[in-house]
Design brief:
Structural class: alpha/beta
EC number: 2.1.3.2
Number of strands: 9
Helix content: 25-40%
Number of helices: 12
Domain Aspartate/ornithine carbamoyltransferase carbamoyl-P binding: 18-159
Order of helices and strands: HEHEHHEHEHEHEHEHEHHEH
Catalytic activity: carbamoyl phosphate + L-aspartate = N-carbamoyl-L-aspartate + phosphate + H(+)
GO molecular function: amino acid binding; aspartate carbamoyltransferase activity
Function: Catalyzes the condensation of carbamoyl phosphate and aspartate to form carbamoyl aspartate and inorganic phosphate, the committed step in the de novo pyrimidine nucleotide biosynthesis pathway.
Length: 321
């Protein structure tokens, strides 16, 4: 019996049992997800509440702090009529604090729920959870590894804002070494044609070679730069990220050296083309100044809202097909 087995005929079943990493997707699957996300926009805007997931329970297991991801998943489930079991700080407040293995936690939680959404501090934890569970598992971020649902909402946002995905120029800015969002996004955007990616980051948090090698193998042009203004003047999307203090451990000196080097402010807006957008996975610190918020090209809060539609779509597809 496969994961997520249901009475739906096989030709209607969603092609994925779990959502663990961006490499699982291809353009056809992305198109399917985005089509359902558009339906979810209409449900959310025009209906006080859908009942399509009534009777289903989603467990959220978050071993790292989260506001947007956890709340958007919980909102997505409730807007579709489902129920939520949640633990916000599982590292401290679940049996993990007593030394329980991840595998035992997953085996227990799957007995209470129909789908598990998990954020973990270790890269690869989501894959371990998925291989243990007989119900669908969604990776809501695994350490510095990946954050596939963020990448899905990012690509969906680019498509909605720019009107296309082929032929775009994209700047990834900030903490590229530890940023699971930019890693996942790079994998997805590489599926489109004539894309160019610019990496703009302090030396200490440059994009790792595995992503560069993957892009090269996919025929995607990429370039490293230290000049944010020059890159911004050429791009359709400037994707800013925060320098992640929590990934530096004791090396505060390295964090301080990286922080504040690349900031999106009025100078960036001045060189940015009229059709371009600024994105950010949030939360932000000071890497986008607040005066940018009023500019129509600031897409990050629209981007966060799109996360609701993408997560509604994934819950529907994984549970119902």
């Amino acid at each position: 019996m496969s994961k997520g087995s249901s009475a739906i005929p096989m030709d209607q079943k969603f092609q994925l049992d779990d959502v663990i990493e961006s490499q699982q997707f291809d353009r056809d699957i992305l198109n399917d997800i985005f089509e359902v996300a558009r339906e979810m926009e209409n449900i959310e805007k025009n209906s006080p509440g859908s009942k399509i997931l009534r009777g289903y329970l989603m467990a959220t297991l978050f071993y790292e702090p989260s506001t947007r991801t956890r709340l958007s998943f919980e909102s997505a489930m409730k807007r579709l009529g489902g129920e939520v079991l949640t633990t916000e700080n599982a590292r401290e407040f679940s049996s993990a604090a007593k030394g329980e293995t991840l595998e035992d936690t997953i085996r227990t939680v799957e007995g209470y729920s129909d789908i598990i959404v998990m954020r973990h501090f270790e890269s690869g934890a989501a894959r371990r959870a998925a291989s243990t569970a007989s119900i669908p598992v969604i990776n809501a971020g695994d350490g510095p590894g990946q954050h596939p649902t963020q990448a899905l909402l990012d690509v969906y946002t680019i498509a909605r804002e720019i009107g296309r995905l082929d032929g775009i120029k994209l700047a990834l800015v900030g903490d590229l070494a530890n940023g699971r969002t930019v890693r996942s996004l790079a994998y997805l955007i590489a599926m489109y044609k004539d894309v160019k990616i610019y990496f703009v980051s302090p030396d200490v948090v440059k994009m790792k070679d595995d992503i560069k090698d993957h892009l090269t193998s996919m025929g995607v042009e990429w370039e490293e730069s230290t000049d944010l203004l020059e890159v911004a003047s050429k791009c359709d999307v400037v994707y800013q990220t925060r320098i992640q203090r929590e990934r530096f451990g004791e090396r505060i000196d390295l964090y301080e050296a990286a922080r504040g080097k690349y900031i999106v402010d009025q100078k960036v807006l001045d060189v940015l083309s009229k059709h371009a957008v600024i994105m950010h996975p949030l939360p932000r610190l000071d890497e986008i100044t607040t005066d940018v918020d009023a500019d129509p090209r600031a897409a990050y809060f629209r981007q966060a809202k799109n996360g609701l539609y993408i997560r509604m779509a994934l819950l529907k597809l994984l549970l119902l097909g």
